[in-house]
Amino acid sequence: xxxxxxxxxxxxxxxSFDTEHRRRLDHNIGKYEEAVARGKSQYxxxxxxxxRAANIKHKVINNLxxxxxxxxxxxxxxxxxxxxxxxxxxxxxxVLNIIKKAKAQVIVKQKTMVTEEIELNExxxxxxxxxFETDLGEYIVQLAGEKPYHxxxxxxxxxxxxxxxxxxxxxxxxxxxxxxxxxxxxxEKLRNEFIRADVGITGGNFLLADVGAVALVENEGNGLLCMxxxxxxxxxxxxxxxxxxxxxxxxxxxxxxxxxxxxxxTVYNNLLFGPRGDLEPDGxxxxxxxxxxxRRTELLKFREQRKALSxxxxxxxxxGCPVYRSVGGYTYKATYSGxxxxxISPHYLGMKDYNHLxxxxxxxxxxxxVCPIKIPLHELLLHNRHEAVARNYVSFSWKWIVKGWxxxxxxxxxxxxxxxxxxxxxxxxxxxxxxxPRRTLPKIAPKSFKELxxxxxx
Length: 458
Fold this sequence. Notes:
The chain is globular and about 90 Å long. By secondary structure, the protein is α/β, with parallel strands linked by helices. Helix 2 runs antiparallel to helix 12.
């Protein structure tokens, strides 16, 4: 067994029995569940909307090369520059080259998971640049020296008291500051950084092929400031984020908002067509879109698992997953956690070292049920498990156990013939460790149902 698996097991056990951690996650996710239920109620036919969205993304994923070229052509016509980044290192190098060429020292960033994927903050800080996360949640975890805990809510694991203490230690603010006080302090502090910034970096929720635009949604307005103040804007986006047409946004923007935060629409919905035009008073003088592959095309090779590339990062599957709600985001040791992360991370980071994430699921199907794009996530986890076994990445003991179980299940007499006492001894001998130290092993009844049925009085 690899070390990543062992670390996962140890961290999962620790977090699962941390009652304060569980309380925070249940409280925060519970708030989202209430809001999402209200948001979905505006639909007359939610199932139809989800089917339409799934069909559009299916078409995109299976014609990705066509839509990528169409996007590049249309975006370039307005003076924007497209940079193709096959790997994480290519993306890092290209972004750093832009920053060095511009002699930029201060960089402001909007919340974007893809920059976490390529560890951009660490790269820029190593090159002596000042980097400021401008989303409140991202700014909190940056100050704490941590990674985002949740795709949508980076600081979900922290209480308001934790945040007040952090700001007191970093800035000397009152230790009993309220969330409103902290938000006001951050707003004033970051406004100065927006003015100082040489480069603004964002992600992109959707790439619109027919008009060559980047669609960016947010709730705080910091994304707009990342684009409006700096002279250079860099959008780093995964190649799977395409939509065929700008008209598709009337379907996808509400689905994203409602399944993510329960809003009818996100507060700010921005369309970026390129750098500032001659008659436009504000906006960046230069705009780059870095199209990141980073093993996404490897995932495309798998007929079933490629469906996970349809994900719009709403976070609904994380909120619904009993495993995520138990072990939390950091246990996965991957940028993308929860059910969708358990599908894609083994392909992005290496199946050999991360296949255990696909086993971190109860297969209850809740993730599939709540997904707005109808991605069959629990089924894809099974396909990943099959792939791990086919590549011989599971332990010898586990293969022996599964083989033995299969043999028993295919031969009923192996279940019926041994006496209950022998069965209980076998369960105690071989199943005690797998059952865990906190659960009582089940006991086999003296008579099976088959025997009870046979002996019933007529």
